[in-house]
Amino acid sequence: MSRAELLLDVLDSTFDKESWYAPLKPSMEGLTARQASWRPPGEATKSIWENVNHLIYYKERLVATLEGQEWTRIDGNDTFFITKQTEDDDDWYLTTNRAESVHNKLKGLLSEMSSEELKENGLESDLIDIFLHDAYHTGQIMQLRKMQGSWPSHR
């Protein structure tokens, strides 16, 4: 397996190919807008929807960089609010669809690159950061689902 193939494999394992940990896509499936917007008490907690926004932002930023596009950088807390949370399930669907779309776009761009191209400009390092970041926040999403009782039980 080449380095490029390995990076693509890990990208998929953080989104929709279950490995040692649950990927993002199943952690979003089956939720209503209301469930995605729920948050436990506490000032520092984020909702599932906010976490998904945050993950979308960093992948969209990387895709824009790879495509040579201008990108308006926002930092910190603002990345959690790139889409508005509503009670409308269609709005939540659009957000999850955006997460899948940017994943597929990144995967497509990476699949066209050689291992040498991936080493250039610290791209491998950026990708590893994205992978770890996605896994971290997916864990938070799953914990929120368990707290609200919306994580499926597999007895």
Textual characterization of the structure:
The protein is mostly helical and 155 residues long. It has seven helices and no strands. 62% of the residues lie in helices and 0% in strands. The mean pLDDT is 92. Helix 4 packs antiparallel against helix 7 (123-148).
Concise summary:
The chain is mainly α and 155 residues long. The protein is 62% helix and 0% strand.
Keywords:
155 residues, mainly alpha, 7 helices, globular
Q: What does the radius of gyration come to?
A: 16 Å
- Morphology call: globular
Largest sheet: none
User: Distance between termini?
Assistant: 36 Å
As residue ranges, the low-confidence spans are none
The averaged pLDDT comes out at 92
Helix run count = 7
What proportion of the residues form beta strands (DSSP E)?
A: under 5%
What percent of residues adopt helix (DSSP H or I)?
55-70%
User: What class, by secondary structure content?
Assistant: mainly alpha
- Give the SSE order as H and E letters: HHHHHHH
